[in-house]
Amino acid sequence: MAVQKRVLLLDSILLSLFVNQYAPAYSVCHSFYWTATALFSAQVLLHAIWSIIIYPKLLSPLRHLPTPPGASLILGHFLTVSKAATGEPQREWIETVPNDGIIKYSFLFNDDRVLLTSPKALAEVLVHRNYEFIKPSRMRTGLGRVLGIGILLAEGDEHKRQRRTLMPAFSFRHVKDLYPIFWDKSREMVEAMDEAVRKPDIPGEKPSSVVEIGNWASRATLDIIGVAGLGQDFHALADPNNELNQTYRSIFTNTPLARAMQLLGNFVPLWILRALPLKRNQEISDAIKLIKSTCRNLVQSKKQKLEKGERTDVDILSVAIESGGFSDEDLVNQLMTFLAAGHETTASALIWATYLMCLHPEVQSRLRQEIRGALPSISDRNAKISSTDIDHLPYLNAVCNETMRVFSPVPITLREAAEDTTILDHPIPKGTTIIICPWAINSSKTLWGEDAKEFNPDRWMGPGRANTGGADSNYSFLTFLHGPRSCIGKDFAKAEFASLVAAVVGRFEMELEDPNMILDISGGITAKPRGGLFVKIKPIEGW
Ligand code: HEM
What we know:
By secondary structure, this protein is an alpha+beta fold. The protein has a domain at 148-410 and 479-539: CATH 1.10.630.10. It has 23 helices and 12 strands. The protein has helices at 5-22, 32-59, 78-83, 88-96, 119-128, 137-147, 156-170, 172-175, 179-198, 213-230, 243-252, 256-264, 270-275, 279-307, 316-323, 328-341, 344-359, 361-374, 387-391, 394-406, 438-441, 445-448, 490-507, and strands at 102-106, 112-116, 133-134, 210-212, 413-417, 421-423, 426-428, 433-436, 508-512, 521-522, 528-529, 534-539. Strand 10 (521-522) and strand 11 form a beta hairpin. Helix 7 (156-170) crosses helix 15 (316-323) and helix 11 crosses helix 14 (279-307). The longest helix has 29 residues, at 279-307. The chain is globular. The chain starts with a helix and ends with a strand. The site of protoporphyrin IX containing FE has 25 residues, from helix 10, helix 16, helix 17 and helix 23. One of its GO terms (molecular function) is oxidoreductase activity, acting on paired donors, with incorporation or reduction of molecular oxygen. The chain crosses the membrane at residues 35-55. Its cofactor is heme.
């Protein structure tokens, strides 16, 4: 229902010309400019009243849907949503607002949001009519600069083509050959952490046995996506000041300014926001330059290798180049996507696993026992790990799944109705924003039972539970979504995550630096403890 401001402006100019020509008595101060300004202001005001109050309250087909209490007349639920961690209010509403599968809430100026709460609604949007619900254009333009317009942001037939082409690189048949890389990098991380706490003068660490786990996690996962995904070791683990790692950390840190700009992006054209002389704009454009040039160099050197017949690796980039389906610029966009989508997410999972291990020392010891009993020692550099070694550890699998259920690294994602459509037979106007919230679905009592919010790895143990956690519907676990736009890197991520957890828990006893820490979650694309997670680690000899 939004009317473009430029239409109102044009309209005001034409009306002003008309009034000044044929009815000058009605003009403002006999001036074309003042008349146009007055007409424009009046139209903006009328349009605002229409779109903020009249349409959503009296006419929108969404107005009859169940809605959480506490909406203000103009700001809707904006204050509740913006004050809490991403996904937290939705986690509460899914329990407290009676609904048949969808809930409506409103954002700033009563812009409607439709939250999906049932497997049936999720199936319609994510699977059966997936391409009718596209990624919102503000997501494409906002994220596209950093992530590249690759598979994550492509739509329709173009998305289908890219997904088909890239799928072989992500199939389990291929991923199973990457386990030794996951293990080698996990070992490298654990050895470097060990060294850091023994030599407390390493820059970036506190002079004690305390480490900020997010820092290690993002360096390790960047290296892993580099080697296993793109055939290039970035050596971020070896170098705490690695430029690429620092760059990603700076752009993915959800500062108040970043949040404010994201919010403004809903109302102010992005080209204006990006032209503002702000430090954040400079940081992002420097980051994009570095990421793009890294990706360009990777494409060039991989192509040269392949031309010389020097192919030794089966990484995602090689598969993409050999498919012949992508231009050089497309390849750069895909690489940008894999680098960003493929490392911050798994890093967030490792942070949450560490946090939960600290809160549940009994789970930590039981897991350590399983790992030490079944896997070769982390100190054994010649030990080779296969997919069977990692995948056949039931408690490790249970802890990893339960961590990703309780703290899904991606708390929320968005879609937009591409046309007037329906969800569960409720009319949904074109342009409506649809909220898919793993954070809420993964802890819904309707789907998981009364103990839904508790961390209980045992729900994944026992016959038939290893893949379901005991839930009846596979839509109950939404961490990687479902359907044609689910995470293509799911098998990669699960194996990588399990290797990292096994190495860390096998080697270290961990506790929170501050046992009274109050969890403050910083939202953004991935959820993390704000300001980092500081953990005391103690190497346990004998493995
Ligand atoms: C624990 C780790 C991970 C989590 C929780 C995760 C989660 C997700 C989610 C929720 C989406 C869907 C986003 C949306 O459509 O709105 C997604 C898409 C995607 N993920 Fe992951 N991801 C993880 C790791 C990875 C890794 C390691 C890679 C690459 C190696 C990867 C590559 C991608 C790509 C390319 C897409 C876009 C797929 C498409 O649109 O067809 N992800 N991921």
